[in-house]
Amino acid sequence: MLIAVLNGPNLNLLGEREPEIYGQATLGDIERAVRERGEAAGATIEWVQSNHEGELIDAIHGLRGRAQGAIVNAAALAHTSLGLRDALLGTGIPFIEVHLSNVFARERVRRHSFLSDIAIGVVAGLGPTGYVSALDALVARLVR
Question: Which of the following is catalytic: 61, 79, 99, 112?
């Protein structure tokens, strides 16, 4: 089973950028944890991070016919990108939306996501463990 993990802009700065909000873990730390859990669950993880909306859309298109599911942390693009929404709708790949911080306790603009209503679930505010929780939930959903 192939699970893609798509990471949006500025997530490459995790561990350095606003650690009081996003924590000390780097994106590499999170990737290692997800890959370990994926291996234990029999899933292959494909990891993507881009600061460019078009590259993320291309990555989503490239999952058609290959991936059984996805974990999507679109970062700020979750709040602004109809293009990502349309790409996810167009591929029909089931996904769980992840946010490291509790977006509902932050600025008003972050409280709306263009992805949440088409996701099979949303994980927000759990920090890096949110990715692993999303993976567990996605795998459970896909194997039933």
Answer: 99
Q: Which of 22, 52, 112, 131 is catalytic?
A: 22
CA distance 43 to 22: 26
Q: Structure pTM?
A: 0.93
For 53, the token pair is 């909306």
Is the Cα torsion angle 103, 106, 110, 112 positive or negative in sign?
Answer: positive
Query: Distance between CA atoms of 138 and 8, rounded to whole angstroms?
Result: 19
**Contacts of residue 138, Cβ cutoff 8 Å, sequence gap at least 6:** 3, 69, 70, 71, 94, 95, 96, 120, 121
Q: How far apart are the C-alpha atoms of 124 and 130, rounded to whole Å?
A: 7
Q: Is 79 a catalytic residue?
A: no
Q: Is 22 a catalytic residue?
A: yes
Query: From the first residue on, what is the mean pLDDT of each consecutive set of 10 residues in the chain (144 residues)?
Result: 97 88 90 98 98 98 97 95 97 96 72 90 95 98 90
